[in-house]
Amino acid sequence: MATNRKILMLPGDGIGPEVMHEVKRMIDWMRDYRGTAFEVQEGLCGGAAYDAHGTSLTEETMADAQAADAVLFGSVGGPKWDNVEREQRPEAGLLRLRKEMDLFANLRPATVFDALADASTLKPEVVTGLDLMIVRELTAGIYFGEPRGTDTLPDGTRRGFDTDVYTEPEIQRVARVGFELARKRNNKLHSVEKANVMELGVFWREVVTELHKAEYPDVELHHMYADNCAMQLVRYPKQFDVIVTSNLFGDILSDCAAMLTGSLGMLPSASLGLPDENGQRKALYEPVHGSAPDIAGKRQANPVAMMLSYAMMLRYSFDMDDDANLVEQAIKNVLGGGLRTADIMQAKTAKVSTDVMGDAILREMGKLNR
Ligand code: IPM
Ligand code: MG
After folding, report:
1. d(Cα 282, Cα 70) in Å, to the nearest integer?
2. What mean pLDDT is predicted for residues 122-132?
3. N- to C-terminal Cα distance for the chain?
4. Which of 31, 65, 310, 336 yields a CA-CA distance of 20 to 30 A from 281?
5. So where are the chain's domains?
């Protein structure tokens, strides 16, 4: 078996290791039954790395991530590290990975599985058949802009500030990802900002409009204010195909989109860099959910978002569409069969633990593989 596919696994904190465990079993299964070999390395990130090394990401792990073909990431953070110095807080490790690997395009697909249309807090007719993609810019904007900090004015008043800033190329490259994805889907792109209030918003709109005219006139382009977008996502989400937006708005809107699918525990994501000369992109795959410290260690976490992130890795980093489809179909069937983790419980379904959900999905993969 050729093992030229190098994965770095960073399970992280809270439920991260539990949901990653289910993906490890999937990798073993694929080795045994599909002859798919990965070279898997495991590392620490977030609070787990802080406890072991006093930093949320060591230089060694950063180098391993740069050298890997793909990084599989769990989740980081938790109350245990609330008082850790800011530069070392668990989230800083994740932000550094995103920034130094230049993973500017964060793809967050919100699709509603038929079996889960009733699990959403919205009416089934609003979400049934929903399939939208949020493209969130991930390496610039207010998450990284300078100046940032707190200071004290001459009169003794304290203040805090961050800077939302994008260069023209930073807007263009993420907008291109949005336009390209739209072309492969339903050819519709919503570009989201606050041009009614922010200078950056006006500039963002101008750059996207110019790019549209120059390179993507065939794509249906809409501009939308971020607050309206939040409202439209819960009013009539099926109007959207692809949404492209900045780091902060994307963070907020993707949590909102996740709940349309029934639970934050269902939403995967892929963070991609630019292709190199061989067409290879740096990539990190992680569930949109966090470390959920309240349920960590209780075998209650939903492993599906992590598994779907793994499927995205198969598809985007390794061109393994058949294997990705197998994972996704198995998940669909198991949900259709009525098994649920606590977060997606509905009437007349059976509540199962993380590992029993994992067992069932593996068994279903076995059936589909015959
Ligand atoms: C996300 C998370 C992260 C973010 C946190 C954990 C730093 O909320 O990936 O959406 O804000 O980007
Ligand atoms: Mg978030």
Report:
1. 7
2. 95
3. 21
4. 31
5. 1-109+263-370, 131-260
* Residue 112, pLDDT score: 94
On the 0-12 / 13-18 / 19+ scale of CB atoms within 10 A, 286 is buried
334 Cα to the center of ligand 1, angstroms: 29
Question: Which pLDDT band holds residue 355 (cuts at 50, 70, 90)?
Answer: very high
Q: Name the closest-CA residue to atom 8, ligand 1.
A: 251
Most ligand 1 atoms within 8 A of CB, residue of 71, 94, 285 to mutate: 94
> At the topology level of CATH, where does 131-260 sit?
Isopropylmalate Dehydrogenase (3.40.718)
- Specify the residue with its C-alpha closest to ligand 1, atom 7: 91
Catalytic residues: 143, 194, 227, 251, 255
pLDDT band at 109 (very low <50, low <70, confident <90, very high): very high
Quick check: bond before 303 cis, omega within 30? no
Mean pLDDT of 249-258: 94
Task: Specify the CATH number for 1-109+263-370; select among 3.40.50.1370, 3.30.1130.10, 3.40.718.10, 3.30.750.24.
Answer: 3.40.718.10
The answer, yes or no, to whether residue 3 has pLDDT greater than 80, is no
Span from the CA of 289 to the centroid of ligand 2 (angstroms): 7
Q: Which residues sit with their C-beta closer than 6 Å to ligand 1? A: 77, 91, 94, 251, 288, 290
- Ligand 2 centroid to Cα of residue 101, in Å, is 19
**Could you tell me the distance, in angstroms and rounded to a whole number, from the CA of residue 35 to the centre of ligand 1?**
35
* Minimum-distance ligand 1 atom for the alpha carbon of 77: 6
Q: Exposure of 174 by Cβ count < 10 A (0-12 exposed, 13-18 middle, 19+ buried)? A: buried
Q: pLDDT digits over 193-208, tens only? A: 999 999 999 999 999 9
Parallel, antiparallel or unpaired: strands 131-137 and 242-245: parallel
